[in-house]
Design a protein that fits this description.
The structure is a homodimer. By secondary structure, the first copy, chain A, is α+β, with helices and mostly antiparallel strands. Chain A is built from five helices and five strands. Chain A has helices spanning about 5-10, 20-30, 35-45, 50-60, 135-140, and strands at about 65-70, 75-80, 90-95, 105-110, 120-130. The interface of A and B includes residues 71, 93 and 133 of A. Chain A binds a DNA duplex through helix 4.
Amino acid sequence: MDQQAYLEKLEKRGIKPTAIRLLILKTMIRLDRAVSLLDLENELVTVDKSTIFRTITLFHGHHLIHGVDDGTGSLKYAVCSHDCDCSISEQHTHFYCEQCHRTFCLKSIHVPIVQLPDGFSVQSINYVIKGLCAECSTHE
Amino acid sequence: MDQQAYLEKLEKRGIKPTAIRLLILKTMIRLDRAVSLLDLENELVTVDKSTIFRTITLFHGHHLIHGVDDGTGSLKYAVCSHDCDCSISEQHTHFYCEQCHRTFCLKSIHVPIVQLPDGFSVQSINYVIKGLCAECSTHE
DNA sequence: AAATAAATGCAACTTGATTGCAAACAATAT
DNA sequence: ATATTGTTTGCAATCAAGTTGCATTTATTT
């Protein structure tokens, strides 16, 4: 993925591309999983945590990234696919590995939808499976 | 539900029934939904929050209650059904109302299970639907 | 180049969760 | 009954993560 592609990703969502924003976006794409603010702070020690926080808030507000509640207590974030509008039909399954503590986006697996009782209406769905990831299953 | 039933619920899980533990258990059953530590603190102003915390930790460790991550950032807890062993087949769907901020246990709706990629194994599943509950849908 | 606006870093604050310790309480042994 | 021991609880302090205020830097516009 070249520089131009990252720039476009930001501009497509109406985000002015600064050096730090590009850096954070690249890092998130490189890590290729749902990361917490702390994950990013550890990865980008030169960037202040308030900047990371505000950048993530901005990204989230512009639907460049989506939030995942993986049950660790802290919300995690992952880059949305190119044309994601974050509707329910777009939402995929997430997997949290209890061993390596990484949260994976299983992009090819849609969130399942169940029939709700009368009167309940859906706005979003959080579906997280916890267990052992492929890597941790074999390295034991 | 009489006093005896609450006592049994505790003893069945190997928890010594003190007055405060009974009070917290009764409150959780009365509220009949997944509650946060803060919810309990507000409900039980006479009980210290550290006591509530330690009681909930104890209940959870003894599988008297289960944790639900409803995406509000703070873990919530609800009383397990009588014979629950907290296995996956026991786990039900939860619903978080964006309006009244209550988290419901939809006990009759099992969590759906999807096929995972090779090598991934499941330990537990967190499935939370967010939207409007029946009450909030009508009172608008 | 000056003026204005936006982005960033630093430090402080907030909130909720957690822990240390002493007092209260319960259970047991003498 | 009383002493002894262990458990439970409340209070206060701590901790960690998220968040905000403000000054500084950087970018944009005039």
